Amino acid sequence: MANTYTWDIARMQTYPMRDGKANIVAVIYWVLSGTDGVFEVERRGAAGIEYVPSSEFKPYESLTKDEIIAWAQASLGEEGVQEAINGIDSDLAQLASQPVFTNVPWG
User: Fold this and answer.
1) Is the whole-model pTM more than 0.85?
2) Residues near 60 by Cβ (< 8 Å), separated by ≥ 6?
């Protein structure tokens, strides 16, 4: 079975007020979970978001999880995203290669 990955957002830091706009996202704390169907591991990190006053502004309350994940991934860049995925793959491979301890069969 191929590894599967799930991105999530743990929390965000915002600028309370800037240029008359409230709650501008500054840092996204992301979580990448991966599973091979047996084991599950995760990687965590932070992605800084550059504030660009001239960019289109969307109110904090209107942001979606998918948008924020896309921002975090864009901040990490293709190489950073792949590094996180490779870390998950490595952790899962290590877990899968370790012996599994069970109780004795006679109780």
Assistant:
1) yes
2) 14, 22, 23, 24, 25
